[in-house]
Specification:
Number of helices: 4
Length: about 240
């Protein structure tokens, strides 16, 4: 009965169906999945499969990579193929790297579910007041009192067709738009502004201390590695 309950619970969490089989304790039957949600849509009127028609990528990594899916400390699926669609803010998942991309499904958006894709951890956080207003974040640091998250979004520029013989057609393009957040253990998110000086204001009462730390160590808060180092120092100082 306990094993049956675990399998049924998993069927409510992952949006697999049909021929897809994930690796949870090495086996479970695909016919237990309850929702069939193929990835059929294409955003921004661009065919993602036609990579020659645009520059950049709508994904964090264009290729699927091996990873694991967790519910808290419980391993739900190991060595499955995962990919983060930054345009749609969705995790795509399929059985293996060799499975057709057409077989990919969408992972259920839930604060309890997170994934490890190679060395990167992605969580789903309802940071705008609920699951529908939430999104996926890459975890850069989990501290005792403060965490540092990275939010990847994509700026899209539509295709431009030339109307004369002088200029050329310009392909549609995707470019990265990255925002960093500090989050406390109560789940409150604090967006870090683009400006170096405005970033310091997010550190509140510790602003002057952090400013001195940054200056003494020659750090640049607009670089990820220095922001990460500064966040670790801030967390220890709280």
């Amino acid at each position: 009965m306990k094993n049956l309950f675990s399998v049924l619970k998993l069927s409510l969490i992952l949006l697999f169906c049909g021929n897809v089989i994930a690796q949870v304790d090495n086996q479970f039957a695909s016919d237990l999945y309850m929702v069939d949600e193929f990835i059929k849509r294409q955003d921004k009127f661009v065919d993602y499969m036609d990579t020659a028609s645009y520059t950049g990528t709508p994904y964090n990594n264009e290729s699927f990579l091996l990873g694991n899916v967790y519910n808290g400390k419980e391993l739900l699926a190991n060595d499955v193929a995962l990919r983060y669609n930054a345009v749609a803010d969705e995790i795509e998942i399929k059985e293996s790297l060799t499975s057709p991309d057409e077989d990919a499904r969408l992972l259920t958006k839930s604060p309890e579910i997170y994934v490890k894709i190679m060395g990167d951890i992605y969580i789903f956080a309802p940071y705008k007041g609920g699951v529908e207003g939430g999104g996926y974040f890459q975890v850069l640091y989990e501290g005792n009192k403060i965490d540092l998250y990275k939010k990847l979004e994509k700026d899209f520029t539509p295709e431009k067709i030339s109307n004369n013989s002088i200029t050329r057609d310009v392909k549609a393009s995707f470019s990265d738009e990255i925002t960093y957040y500090l989050a406390d253990k109560d789940g409150k998110f604090y967006e870090l502004p683009k400006s170096r000086n405005k970033k310091l204001k997010v550190f509140g009462k510790k602003k002057d201390e952090i400013k001195a730390y940054v200056r003494e160590n020659g750090l640049d808060l607009n670089t990820e590695k220095d922001l990460l180092r500064t966040t670790k120092h801030y967390d220890i100082s709280l």
